[in-house]
Amino acid sequence: MSVKTKEVLKDDIVQAVVVADTFGDEFLPISSDIPLALFPLINKPLIDYTLEFLSFGGIEETFLFCCSHTEAIKSHINQGIKDGAEWSLTMKVNVIVSESCHSFGDCLRDLDRKGILRGSFVLLEPGTLSNIKLLPIIRKHNEIANKDKGAAMTLIFQESGIGQMGRDPNEEAVVAVNSSNRILFHRKMGQSRERKIEFPLEIFLDNSSVSLHHNLKDTHIAICSPSVLPLFSDNFDFQTKDDFVKGLLMNEEILGSTVYCHITKGNNYGGAVTDWRMYQAVSRELQNKWIYPLQPSVLRNNIQKNGVIVGKGVHIKDNKKIINSVIGDNVHIGENVQIRDSFIFSNTKINDGVIVTHSVIGPNCEIKSKTKITVGSIIGKGVTLEKEHLIEDTLVQATEPENCDPKDKLDKKAFRLKVTGTEDDLGKILSKKLSRLHIEDNRPEESDDDAFSDSEDEELSYTQSPVPDDTKLFFTEVIDSLTRGFEDELRCEHLILEINSSRYAYNVTVREVNFNVIKAILHMSLRLSTGPQYFSQFVRLLSYFAPVLKNYIRNDDAMLDTLQAVEDVAISNENVNEKWVMFVLKWFYDKDYISEDVILEWSKTLDAKSRFYAQVKPFTDWLEEAEEASSSDED
């Protein structure tokens, strides 16, 4: 092989840069002792998911840039290589240490000085997870760069409806692009108090086609041209990726650089753990296989009743009430402990009678008896809380902070931490946002007493517990999508794509999809106001979702699934209008969604003594009479 050929192969190596530090206080006090890269995400280090994603995506060499906790990260990477971690088999990982960097931009300027990157590269922000195939997007970026010499970066967005769990409200963005997907306007609304947007008139005058998007989620992944690092070096006010994009758009003529975007759809997922709300959101999405093939280690064997996931070596005594929580490795939980919507990190001991709700407890902690931790509290590594403490909306660390007020000393190894320079206390942010998420949906509202009742039937089994019902979770996702679509008047084609992507995230069959989509639409009809206008509103609802109905009712099996959905909704709602069943069946029949033969065959399977059969019979009698009359006319 010639030297020239070797150089070509070397230049073709696909490289990525992962910045491991957040440079913020979003995860204090736990991040004081543990880097975000090593945070356990369903009992597996976050960086392992990131490296697996890059390996699956076709990356051959990754530079992991660290500014703090460097020895811990280097030790973890070296151990992964020694143990033959999956990512280590196909990808080389280099840890770069620079403790003098104080921002994302500083890291990229340092990389520019080192000169270790060749050609285009993938840039990941801290805490990123994804299952996106990167090589086709890299090739597309290079094709654009060949035509547009100023093309600096391609941002990767994921199509995501407003209000979806994995879409961070702080990162709500409005993006305008031209027909070539070049970004003309980019504004993050979640970081601004202004609710009004003014678009520059020239973007419409200078472009024959402009698309406005408010349905995109930032995946925190970008494809970068070689010019990106020098641009950061030449502009010291570029401290974040958002600064970079904003600066290039504002000074496009001066800098001569442009930014493009790539929008993923379907079951392509991209996102980042940027705060505690997103930490729980990503945890749930991992649990529900939204990010497949990325997945926690032996997840299915560790899922317990009520959305509880436990790690290895966990010891839990009888009579525990634990709901929607993740328990780390080697955790000891005593009697009569109540834990809900919380995360307990490894090697922690929780004694008898403790209550933990909507909170995070770091590793190596001891929470002594009858202590209550709630309202979005975060307990740092190594904290010991003596018995009968009440911790609400509080950050607690084990070491005494500077200028500690005597009243902030809770115990010998427990001090209240006050975070300055933020508009809102981090505990309040956690309380507001973490508490709105639930690992298991579809559960009625209940008080703490109801949630932690002493019923023998509700006690958790940690040996042979069923996994969460994917069908129920899928139904909840469909209800959310269709409700939002109807209220916001979204196109049904987009709703169908969203439903289909949800199907791949859950273990549901085609017939279960048909049944649950129809059931969701019928269930929505029960929310309409009652009175003389009810059925006219019902017709409006059904007519709006006509494209959805046509997409899923395609054969006799789907027709039967539809009828079973009608039966399920009618039987499970005793207060449904007496004429509701007759109306639904006649509407589906008149619109040719369901055939006469399927309806009549299905009716024969019903219990003739049931109330539902009595509601169906007038319609089937009408069908049979019409058929007899037709036969007589033919004779």
From TrEMBL:
It holds the Pfam family NTP_transferase. It is found in: Cytoplasm, Cytosol. Residues 446-460 have a biased composition (Acidic residues). CDD domains: eIF-2B_epsilon_N (cd04197), W2_eIF2B_epsilon (cd11558). Belongs to the eIF-2B gamma/epsilon subunits family. Its main location: cytoplasm. One of its GO terms (cellular component) is eukaryotic translation initiation factor 2B complex. This is Translation initiation factor eIF2B subunit epsilon. One of its GO terms (molecular function) is guanyl-nucleotide exchange factor activity. It comes from the Eukaryota. Residues 440-466 are annotated as: Disordered. The lineage of its organism: Eukaryota, Metazoa, Ecdysozoa, Arthropoda, Hexapoda.
